[in-house]
Structures are given as structure tokens and as C-alpha cells.
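Hi everyone,

Forwarding the result from last night's run.
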Amino acid sequence: MVDAIEQELYKAIGARIREFRLAQHMSQATLAEKANISLPHMSKIENGKCTILISTFIRITEVLQVSSDALLRSDIPEVKHLYNSELADLLNDCTPMEIDAILKIVKEVKRSLQLSKPEEPM
């Protein structure tokens, strides 16, 4: 049986799998097919409703062409560096006006996310 902490970890991993899949404009069905798993199982993985075998996890990372670190732990320095590098790549060919607009959007999204965080007990 999976305890509450493990369940949250599976949800976080599933959410990151979904984020990387969507960033590649890949459907859930396509990822499931390429990773050789059923669509319902893929849905359960992305929603954190099941445990995931290491062999399945490896196939998903290979299909998405993403580091397992990026899916497992988004808070480690190496992964943050990858995110920073990816963001820099996205901004590389933007005009100053586009960069300004993107920064305003990111700041607003960040503010919104921080406002929606549950308060931590003191």
C-alpha cells in the first residue's frame, strides 16, 4: 500500500511527465503507444493514481527524451540548470519586446501560483 507521502510523489512525477509530453505537443495516446503501455495505464501514471515500474519509467523518459532527474526531482541544482538553459533557448530568438511580454506573463503566472499555495504550518 502507498502512503500519503508516496502518493504525492507519484502525483508530482505524473504531473511532470504530462508537462514534458504537452511541451512536445504529444498526445497521451502517442506516449502510451511509444512507451508500450495502455492508454488507461498512462492516464493513471500522469494522474498519480498508480505506482510505476522502473522499466515503464525508463521507456517514458526515452520516448520523451528527457532526463530521469527532470521527472523525479525538479528541485535539484542540475535540473534547475536544465530549466534555466531551456528558458534561455526559448528566449534566444525573441525580440526585446517579445522578451518583455514573456517576462510579464511569467511573473504573473508565478504570482498566481504562489497565491494558490496552501499555507504551511508554523
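The chain has two domains: 1-74, 76-117.

Cheers,
N.
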